[in-house]
């Protein structure tokens, strides 16, 4: 699927709900800089897969197929900046470096926690100036953009900041996660899931916890709870109907679980949101 981005330096700053998965790979006509300020996601770029947590930053070339899956647990805040290929020429001229090859070599990096606000503030400044505040707006945008790219290039120099693609074992756990996200409304057990993916329960349990930070059952309950929260806010379904649609045994089970995770009962949550 091809998404045409009209404007150079177009930004998209959004809060993504838990357990969100794009249905299709897509491509753009411009470079995409994606920055995860909070939360986590799995990024598919071509045939490579990367796990991005808070501070993860990816540079995706034009016409490169990609998509993302956001893991359950809480909302995720992500920043996206699109820019023309020509915007990279200045640093190549100044430093005699092949910038595109550098970006292709280390397309995904981790921004140190103490610098998260620095990156987000630069993208916010670009977003503000992109609205055309005055005749100097474009000059300010280029200044901010140059600062951003230089900082990214410096981060790439340190191996600790480079995020490598997933190994085969992690790819399998990612498939398990996608299975949960797509089937949470059904009766899912770890035993049946392990058998489906040709794993032992012990192996699935250990790898799942190591990869997600959640136990299998805990993760499943989180997915169901956040799906229920979405239905509470965006539909008029009864709590009993929502419990059934989200895979809970009954409304009482959902009520107790929901309050434990979200901090308030389903009815109160619906009223406050």
UniProtKB/TrEMBL annotation:
Domain of life: Bacteria
Family matches, as InterPro entries: AraC-bd, Homeodomain-like_sf, HTH-like, HTH_AraC, RmlC-like_jellyroll
GO molecular-function terms, A-Z: DNA-binding transcription factor activity; sequence-specific DNA binding
HTH araC/xylS-type domain location: 174-272
Pfam families linked: AraC_binding (PF02311), HTH_18 (PF12833)
Keyword DNA repair: no
Keyword terms, alphabetized: DNA-binding, Transcription, Transcription regulation
SUPFAM superfamilies for the chain: Homeodomain-like (SSF46689), Regulatory protein AraC (SSF51215)
Entry protein name: Helix-turn-helix domain-containing protein
């Amino acid at each position: 699927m091809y998404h045409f981005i009209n404007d150079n330096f177009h930004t998209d700053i959004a809060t993504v709900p838990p357990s969100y998965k794009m249905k299709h790979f897509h491509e753009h006509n411009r470079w995409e800089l994606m920055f995860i300020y909070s939360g986590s996601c799995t990024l598919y770029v071509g045939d490579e897969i990367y796990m991005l947590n808070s501070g993860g930053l990816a540079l995706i070339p034009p016409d490169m197929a990609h998509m993302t899956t956001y893991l359950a647990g809480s909302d995720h805040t992500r920043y996206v900046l699109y820019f023309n290929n020509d915007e990279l020429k200045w640093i190549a001229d100044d430093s005699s470096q092949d910038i595109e090859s550098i970006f292709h070599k280390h397309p995904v990096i981790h921004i140190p926690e103490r610098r998260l606000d620095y990156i987000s503030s630069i993208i916010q400044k670009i977003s503000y100036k992109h609205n055309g505040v005055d005749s100097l707006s474009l000059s300010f945008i280029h200044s901010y953009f140059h600062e951003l790219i230089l900082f990214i290039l410096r981060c790439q120099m340190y191996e600790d900041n480079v995020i490598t693609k997933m190994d085969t074992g992690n790819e399998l756990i990612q498939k398990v996660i996608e299975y949960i996200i797509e089937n949470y409304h059904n009766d899912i057990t770890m035993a049946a899931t392990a058998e489906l993916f040709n794993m032992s329960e012990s192996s699935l349990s250990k790898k799942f916890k190591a990869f997600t930070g959640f136990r299998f059952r805990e993760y499943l309950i989180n997915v169901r709870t956040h799906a229920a929260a979405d239905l509470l806010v965006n539909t008029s379904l009864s709590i009993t109907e929502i419990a059934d649609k989200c895979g809970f045994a009954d409304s009482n089970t959902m009520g107790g679980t929901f309050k434990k995770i979200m901090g308030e009962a389903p009815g109160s949550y619906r009223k406050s949101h």
